[in-house]
């Protein structure tokens, strides 16, 4: 059973409901923002829990604009998680976030600690890193100087290992027109990147006492694995799991290994 809806412009889906009296898992995607990113995880998760997907504000099927009265921030992404939970009557959820979604999970832990059960931060960070800045500078140049098609064509280099790109080249080429057609408005993407580059909760990590799985990949070309080590060192109740291979989007390239670690943590092992 899938329940779909919209709250304050945010498109959401509930898979495997109802939620009353049950633990719920909410999945929050990275910079692209689309809930469909989590396709490789859905069977493993919905076999055990109700699962909430949503498209970040400004992306996918959600409203394609951001508030214009102030700079957009990762804290706003956390606020949108609360809006989706409220719409579905969910008092508390386990949050699994990839990159931007993981950072938003950290922000949620600080702003609404009572709404969060366990947290999984996948290839996220607590403060800006020079390598991340360099990668985003490159993406910004592509978007500003060339356009969405060039941005989409290059993004596989940041997301996947070289061997996986070689083996899946036809698939990636076939998907590019779809990604270009669904690309967020330029102003939205610039604001989302700006929010990630401004994100810094490093000094507040000791305040987050929730159980946290810090999931990382040793060969991530966008977020250095040292960012995960820092999260695990500074979060009071964290477990670090580093996959040896899989790139930034390890949930796509190695779903079996990623899902096994994710389920173990959510089940309490």
TrEMBL record:
Q: Can you give the residue ranges of the AB hydrolase-1 domain?
A: 24-143
Example GO molecular function:
monoacylglycerol lipase activity
Q: Pfam families attached here?
A: Abhydrolase_1
- Catalysed reactions, semicolon-separated: carbamate + 2 H(+) = NH4(+) + CO2
**Does Hydrolase show up as a keyword for this record?**
yes
Q: Which organism is it from?
A: Caulobacter radicis
One cellular component term (GO) for this entry is:
membrane
Protein's job: Involved in pyrimidine catabolism. May facilitate the hydrolysis of carbamate, a reaction that can also occur spontaneously.
Q: Which family does it belong to?
A: Belongs to the AB hydrolase superfamily. Hydrolase RutD family.
Which SUPFAM superfamilies does the annotation name? alpha/beta-Hydrolases
Name the chain's protein: Putative carbamate hydrolase RutD
Tell me the InterPro entries matching this sequence.
AB_hydrolase_1, AB_hydrolase_fold, AB_hydrolase_sf, Pyrimidine_utilisation_RutD
Q: What is its EC number?
A: 3.5.1.-
Biological process, per Gene Ontology: acylglycerol catabolic process; nitrogen utilization; uracil catabolic process
Per UniProt, the keywords (alphabetical) are: Hydrolase
């Amino acid at each position: 059973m899938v329940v779909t809806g919209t709250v304050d412009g945010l498109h959401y889906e509930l898979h495997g409901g109802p939620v009353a009296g049950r633990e719920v898992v909410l999945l929050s995607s990275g910079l692209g923002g689309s809930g469909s990113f989590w396709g490789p995880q859905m069977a493993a998760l919905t076999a055990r829990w109700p699962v909430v997907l949503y498209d970040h504000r400004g992306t996918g099927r959600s409203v394609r604009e951001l508030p214009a009265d102030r700079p957009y921030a990762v804290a706003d992404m956390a606020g949108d998680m609360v809006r989706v939970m409220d719409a579905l009557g969910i008092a508390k959820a386990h949050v699994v976030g990839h990159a931007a979604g993981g950072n938003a999970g950290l922000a949620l832990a600080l702003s609404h600690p009572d709404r969060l059960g366990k947290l999984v931060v996948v290839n996220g960070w607590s403060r800006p890193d020079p390598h991340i800045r360099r990668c985003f500078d490159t993406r910004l140049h592509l978007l500003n100087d060339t356009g969405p098609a060039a941005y989409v064509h290059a993004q596989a280099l940041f997301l996947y290992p070289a061997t996986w790109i070689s083996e899946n080249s036809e698939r990636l080429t076939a998907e590019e027109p779809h990604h270009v057609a669904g690309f967020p408005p330029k102003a939205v993407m610039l604001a989302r990147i700006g929010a990630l580059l401004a994100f810094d909760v490093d000094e507040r990590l000791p305040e987050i006492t929730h159980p946290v799985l810090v999931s990382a990949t040793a060969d991530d070309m966008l977020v250095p694995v040292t960012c995960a080590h820092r999260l695990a060192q500074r979060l009071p109740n964290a477990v670090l799991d580093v996959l040896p291979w899989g790139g930034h989007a390890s949930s796509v390239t190695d779903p079996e290994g990623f899902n096994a670690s994710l389920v173990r943590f959510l089940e309490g092992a």
